[in-house]
Every structure is written in structure tokens, then in C-alpha cells.
Amino acid sequence: MIQKPKGTKDLLPEESYKWQDAEAKVKKVLESYNFKEIRVPVFEHTELFQRGVGETTDVVQKEMYTFDDKGGRSITLRPEGTAGVVRAYLENGMGSLPSPVKLWYNMGMYRYENVQKGRLREFHQIGAELIGSGSYLADVDVILMANNIFKALNIPGIKLTLNSIGCPKCRAAYQKILKEFIGENLKDYCDTCKTRFEKNPLRILDCKEKRCKEFNQGAPMMIDYLCDECKEHFENVKTMLDSLNVKYEIDSTIVRGLDYYTKTVFEFVDEKSGLTVLGGGRYDGLVEEFGGQPTPAVGFATGVERLMEMYKEYNPDLGEKVPDLYILSMGIEENKKALEISENLRMAGLTVEKDILERSFKSQMKYADKINAKNLLVIGGNELQEGKAKVKNMESGEEKEVSLDSKAIISVIK
Ligand code: HAM
């Protein structure tokens, strides 16, 4: 039997309704801030991610699903959503829309990662991108919106961590200091870090190799070298969060795994597993990097699989979606009536099941019980003749007589 590729998951019906339930709640939060949904292609030109996410990141160096298509173009399955959304923003002239432009998405992402707890090769992200505001107020809105997602899903065990990784101006000065620190042990760092030393030494702080992590201990941190503008921006973000009593921790080790970030970066971390469930930050240079006018932006994405693990943990009683009614019938005329009623009820928005296997009454009854139908309606010869039948509420056992008329039946089961 052919099995699914490593790092992928099947989402079965018993699980998908929980996803839909959570997704609807998250969508409500995003829409309460007037974010609008965008959908972009699963694959893009490889160059988009090389330039946007950054040549020296793990994502670009090690994790992309890249291939040449039949026309010889290098194509990559999106490893994240921001680059594609910003490309779409520019390509569709969204810069001329009233600013800021607020977009959200729920899309599959692809990264060739070492598969382990919380790390998949196909996963999903719900993300939000606010394009066109450089104000600290935009950072605050986006962080509050992320925070509200966890509130809406009744997930208390989450910690907000914040950092600022400055702007190109202050980062250049900091990088010199960082290089001096790393340079002392450079020959013993891993090969990837060595290649990053000249191009992007900040990336070395994100290395997962044990020996590199050890050498990185005590490294100078960007947050201590911010320029006045970045410092003021970060102070303002913190002051606003404080004024709303939003709890956070400053974590100067957050560098994020993608190169486009500037100033504020943040992560929401599962306090039990330590996994980052949502990550984001400001990316003021990306629109320009892709050929647009200088346009500041800020956003985040949450890994839906990780979010769902928490949602299920803190909400163990998520009810299953069950049919409102099962109609039992046997015989041509009875089946006709069952069909007429089931169609009317379905059009009215109810979930209705009926026999389509021409099973005995006993088997139909067993099946209705197994699928946890809320109500039962039996249409036999007598019922058809009298134009009346009983609706049984399966939970309470209560029976009500109704005329065999769709409206009457709806009024009893609703
Ligand atoms: P990211 O931190 O790479 O950011 O990913 C965001 C979230 O996606 C992570 O916090 C995690 O929950 C989930 N995630 C990432 N990789 C995996 C994986 N292999 N398996 C399961 N879940 C995963 C971004 O992608 C940015 N585009 C976020 C952003 C939007 N920043 C600004 N706007």
C-alpha cells in the first residue's frame, strides 16, 4: 500500500470539524480588525523566497521544495506566506488602495524539515499582514489580534515574548560587534555558520547546532544596540501593551528564522511544550526589496497544527457534528416521501440522513444510533396512509407526533 510522504498528515472527518470550528473563531477575530482574506499560489518563482526570506536562512538553504518545471523555470512550493502576499500586493496594484492594506490567509506551507514533534513538511498557517503602516500602533494592533486568537480559542497556556531586532541602520553597527564576538571561535562553528559570518552574522544566533549554541552564549544582543528611533518604537509598543495589561516577556534571543524582519518581533510560545505557536514581526524593507515603494509592514502567522494541539488540549469537550435527523423508510412510496422531506429539510439548512442502502428497519435503526442522529422519523405504510408520524428525540427519548409535512417536522426538531 502506498503511504503518505513523511511529514504530512491526513485530516480525517473526526478532526476536520474541530479545525473548522477553530478556523471560524480565528476568522472572526481577524475580521473584527477588518482584515480581508487573500489566497495566493502554492508555488512561486524560487527567486521570490531567495530574495524575500533570505539566502542565508535555514528555510532557503535547507528546507525549500524546489524543482524545475517543464519549461525550465525554478519553482518553489511556498515555505511561508508573507513573500507571496507581498508579491500579490505589488502585482495587483494594492498599493493604491486606502492604506493600510490588511490581509489574512489560511494556506498550506511546505518545508523540508527534520520531522519531529510540531515539525511537519506540509503544515498550515493562518497569517495576517498589515501593509502600509510604520507606526508602533500597527505593531500593537497586530499583537493584540494575535492575543485575541488565543482568547477566542480559550487557550490560556500561552506566553507572549517580544524583542526588537532593529533596522538596517543600527543592525550594521551591531553586526560589527557581533562579528568580533563570533570571530574568536569562528573556526569551530558549523560550516553553515561559517558561510553566514560574512553575509549575515545575525543568522548565526539562530543556529540549532549544539556547539554553535554554546559558543553563542553571552553574545552581544541586538536589543542593547538599537538606534534612538528603534528604541523609541519598541518603548511605545511596550507602553501600549502595558496600558492594556497584556502580559509579555522580553526575550532578546528571538531573532526569527526569516531575514525580512526589522524592529519588533514576537512569538507566542506554548508554555507546556515550549513550541512557538505563532510568530511574527515588522518587515519594513520587504515591499521595497520586491520593487515597490518603501512601505512598512507588520504581520504574523500561526501554525494551525500547533494551534489545534493546544485548542484540543484546553477544550476537551468539542462536540461532534451530528445529523439533526435520520429518516427511516422502506418501500417505494415511503422512500419517495422520505426523499421529499429530506430534500426540503436540507434546503432549510438541516443535516439529514436517510437510508440509501435499502436496509431493513432494524439495520437503519442501528445505523442512526451509531451516527448519533439527534432525531428519528419513521415513515412506514401506516404513517404514509395517515399522513402523520412520530419524531423521536434520541437524547431525551421524547416522542412527538407531527403531520408528514416538512415545515411541521422542522418546527419539532429545531
Ligand atoms: P515562522 O515563524 O517561520 O514565520 O512560522 C510561523 C509559525 O508556523 C510557527 O510559529 C509555527 O507555529 C508554524 N510552523 C513553522 N514551521 C512549521 C513546521 N515545519 N511544522 C509545523 N508548523 C510550523 C513565518 O512563516 C512568517 N511568514 C510569519 C509572518 C507573517 N511574519 C510576518 N508576517
Overall description:
This protein has 414 residues and is α+β, with helices and mostly antiparallel strands. The protein folds into 2 domains: 13-167 and 227-314, 2-Layer Sandwich (BirA Bifunctional Protein, domain 2), CATH 3.30.930; 325-413, Anticodon-binding domain (Rossmann fold, 3-Layer(aba) Sandwich), CATH 3.40.50.800. It has helices at residues 13-32, 46-52, 58-63, 82-91, 136-152, 168-183, 191-199, 210-216, 228-243, 286-289, 304-314, 332-347, 361-370, 381-386, 406-413, and strands at residues 36-37, 43-45, 66-68, 74-77, 101-110, 122-131, 158-164, 249-250, 262-270, 276-282, 297-303, 325-329, 352-354, 375-379, 388-393, 399-403. An 8-stranded mixed sheet has the order 1-5-6-11-10-9-7-8, sandwiched between helices. A 5-stranded mixed sheet has the order 13-12-14-15-16, with helices on both faces. Strands 2-4-3 form a 3-stranded antiparallel sheet. The protein is elongated and about 90 Å long. The structure holds histidyl-adenosine monophosphate. Histidyl-adenosine monophosphate binds next to strand 6, strand 10, strand 11 and helix 11.
Give a brief rundown of this model.
With 414 residues, the protein is an alpha+beta fold.
